[in-house]
Amino acid sequence: MKLAVIAANGQAGKAIVEEAVKRGHEVTAIVRSENKSQAESIIKKDLFELTKDDLTGFDAVISAFGAYTPDTLPLHSKSIELFNQLLAGTQTRFLVVGGSGSLYIDETKTTRLLDTPDFPEEFKSLAKAQADELDLLRTKNNLNWAFVSPAVDFIPDGEKTGNYILAGEIFTTNEKRNKPD
Q1: Could you tell me where the beta strands, DSSP code E, fall in 25-141?
Q2: 31: helix, coil or strand?
Q3: What are phi and psi of 146, to 5 degrees?
Q4: Minimal CA–CA distance to 40: which of 11, 61, 17, 16?
Q5: H helices within the chain, ranges in order?
Q6: What are phi and psi of 47, to 5 degrees?
Q7: N-term to C-term CA, the chain
Q8: Torsions phi, psi for 153 (to 5 deg)
């Protein structure tokens, strides 16, 4: 499979590239600066300068892009608009690495993790930006997308277990946790 990983120098991006290379996929890192991932193919470009030609020929484009300051948080949604322009109507799968704050804590899907009283205040702005990003994706009917929420305590260089929980949009923990830290 031919994959493009945007923000391949970041924590999630590097982990995605490493696993994809290990599994034999053909991976292109899209980075703003010198490539620090295991990808052999590189596009050195800011994501907001990408063109349709840059993303042509990939089976999947994975965005591990993150913005963390109050001034840059709106870039999450801005990036979705860009990828919609570049990938809508194509067969290319678009995957976004989001956050667990956008997950629901109830089966009726009325309360998100970020809306709970125990959600850490210092992460609420980021979680809200990522939830907005997901809401925007939901309006993109011509984009073949998926939004992936890593574990609430995602540790990219942590021990690899090979076990994953696929839980849809409901916040879930493994057998070792009763609740998030």
Answers
A1: 26-31, 41-44, 60-63, 93-97
A2: strand
A3: -145, 145
A4: 17
A5: 11-22, 52-55, 75-87, 121-137
A6: -60, -30
A7: 36
A8: -110, 45
Which residue type is seen at 11? Q
Q: String of b and e for 33-56 (b: at least 16 CB within 10 Å)?
A: eebebebeeebeeebeebeeebbe
Dig out the tokens for 89 from the structure: 């109507």
Q: Crossing angle for the helix pair 75-87 and 121-137, nearest 10 degrees?
A: 20
pLDDT for 5-56, tens place per residue?
999 999 999 999 999 999 999 999 999 999 999 999 999 999 999 999 999 9
CATH class of the domain defined by 2-148: alpha beta
- Measured in residues, the chain has a length of 181
Matching residue, tokens 């696993």: 19
- Domain residue ranges of the chain, discontinuous segments joined by +: 2-148
Query: Is the per-residue pLDDT at 181 higher than 60?
Result: no
Looking at the predicted structure, is the pLDDT value of residue 121 above 90? Answer: yes
Sheet of 145-148: strand order equals 41-44, 26-31, 2-6, 60-63, 93-97, 145-148
Output the pTM of the full model. 0.91
Cα-based torsion angle of the residue sequence 81, 43, 63, 91 in order, rounded to the nearest 10 degrees: 70
